[in-house]
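Before we proceed, please read the two lines closing this message. Let me know whether the C-alpha coordinates fit the sequence:

…
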Amino acid sequence: MESRPPKPDWDLLFETASAQEGYFTTRQAAEAGYSTQLLLKHIRAGRVVRTRRGIVARAELGDVEEALRPFGGLGT
Protein backbone atom coordinates (compact mmCIF):
# COMPACT_ATOMS: atom_id res chain seq x y z
CA MET A 1 0.00 0.00 0.00
CA GLU A 2 1.39 3.41 -1.02
CA SER A 3 1.76 6.06 1.63
CA ARG A 4 0.02 9.33 0.95
CA PRO A 5 1.95 12.58 1.03
CA PRO A 6 1.31 14.53 4.24
CA LYS A 7 -1.34 17.23 4.25
CA PRO A 8 0.17 20.71 4.02
CA ASP A 9 1.04 21.92 7.51
CA TRP A 10 1.62 25.69 7.46
CA ASP A 11 2.41 25.76 11.20
CA LEU A 12 5.11 23.10 10.85
CA LEU A 13 6.63 24.89 7.88
CA PHE A 14 6.74 28.24 9.67
CA GLU A 15 8.08 26.59 12.83
CA THR A 16 10.93 25.24 10.71
CA ALA A 17 11.45 28.65 9.11
CA SER A 18 11.43 30.42 12.48
CA ALA A 19 14.26 28.21 13.68
CA GLN A 20 16.28 29.27 10.58
CA GLU A 21 15.92 33.06 10.59
CA GLY A 22 12.70 32.82 8.55
CA TYR A 23 14.09 30.65 5.75
CA PHE A 24 13.26 27.11 4.67
CA THR A 25 14.23 24.85 1.81
CA THR A 26 11.95 23.38 -0.80
CA ARG A 27 12.80 19.97 0.67
CA GLN A 28 11.59 21.12 4.10
CA ALA A 29 8.43 22.44 2.45
CA ALA A 30 7.88 19.02 0.85
CA GLU A 31 8.38 17.35 4.23
CA ALA A 32 5.66 19.68 5.59
CA GLY A 33 3.32 18.53 2.81
CA TYR A 34 3.86 21.25 0.20
CA SER A 35 4.16 20.08 -3.39
CA THR A 36 6.17 22.18 -5.81
CA GLN A 37 2.92 23.44 -7.33
CA LEU A 38 1.42 24.41 -3.98
CA LEU A 39 4.61 26.19 -2.92
CA LEU A 40 4.61 28.08 -6.23
CA LYS A 41 1.02 29.14 -5.54
CA HIS A 42 2.12 30.63 -2.19
CA ILE A 43 5.07 32.37 -3.86
CA ARG A 44 2.78 33.91 -6.47
CA ALA A 45 0.33 34.98 -3.74
CA GLY A 46 3.17 36.74 -1.92
CA ARG A 47 3.02 34.63 1.26
CA VAL A 48 6.60 33.48 0.79
CA VAL A 49 9.50 34.69 -1.36
CA ARG A 50 11.92 32.59 -3.39
CA THR A 51 15.36 33.88 -2.42
CA ARG A 52 17.56 31.40 -4.26
CA ARG A 53 17.05 28.10 -6.00
CA GLY A 54 15.69 25.78 -3.34
CA ILE A 55 15.54 28.48 -0.64
CA VAL A 56 12.35 30.26 0.37
CA ALA A 57 11.68 32.94 3.01
CA ARG A 58 8.63 34.14 4.85
CA ALA A 59 7.32 37.22 3.07
CA GLU A 60 7.05 39.27 6.27
CA LEU A 61 10.83 39.30 6.62
CA GLY A 62 10.78 42.61 4.80
CA ASP A 63 13.58 43.43 2.39
CA VAL A 64 14.88 39.94 1.63
CA GLU A 65 17.35 41.23 -0.96
CA GLU A 66 18.92 43.58 1.61
CA ALA A 67 19.12 40.77 4.16
CA LEU A 68 20.93 38.53 1.65
CA ARG A 69 23.36 41.15 0.34
CA PRO A 70 26.22 39.88 2.58
CA PHE A 71 25.66 36.41 1.09
CA GLY A 72 25.82 37.52 -2.55
CA GLY A 73 22.26 38.79 -3.02
CA LEU A 74 19.31 36.88 -4.37
CA GLY A 75 21.12 35.14 -7.17
CA THR A 76 17.95 34.69 -9.22
